[in-house]
Amino acid sequence: MRRTAVRGPVAGAGAGAQTVVGEQPQEAAAPLLPASTPAPMPAPVQQRLQTEFPFELPRGYVDEAGTVHRDGVMRLATARDELVPLRDIRVQENPAYLSVVLLGRVITRLGTLPLVHDGVVENMFASDLAFLQDFYRQVNAEGHTRASVQCPHCSEPFEVELGGSRLGES
After folding, report:
1. Is the dihedral of CA 125, 128, 134, 140 positive or negative?
2. Surface-to-core class of residue 107, CB atoms within 10 Å of its CB (0-12 exposed, 13-18 middle, 19+ buried)
3. 137 Cβ partners below 8 Å, 6+ apart?
4. H or E element: which one contains 146?
5. Per-residue model confidence as pLDDT tens digits over 22-59
6. Residue 74's closest CA among 108, 50, 101, 45?
7. Could you tell me the pTM of the whole model?
């Protein structure tokens, strides 16, 4: 709003009161920050980390009753998940058994099975085991290189690719 000439005191106003032509009386305005004080930054938006990933086995695990279980959930592996199986005697005798023990730790649900463990993984079809090994690598290392970010100018959320989909790509 543009200010114009200042007139003398208004009748009924206290000493030193002035009225500016063209302006309406305003309520007390918030004090302005000094020019050297940076404006406060908005609070960062909380991002939730996805820790569980659904999957569907190509063939399916067949239990003792003949029920086929295909839909499952795998969680992200922790350092403990990768270290504990190394102490397992089966893994020490046969390093190829590492993936069986590891998958038994990170698969949290498979069909209607009450519990998933390395014995379940051990009795899966080879194609399902290969699928789960690949899915594990994708979830925990190679494949989830997309990150949700927010534009610093317009605050619009979007995703960016942080790396290649195969080793050696960027």
Report:
1. negative
2. buried
3. 143
4. strand 146-150
5. 555 555 555 565 666 666 777 776 778 889 999 999 99
6. 108
7. 0.58
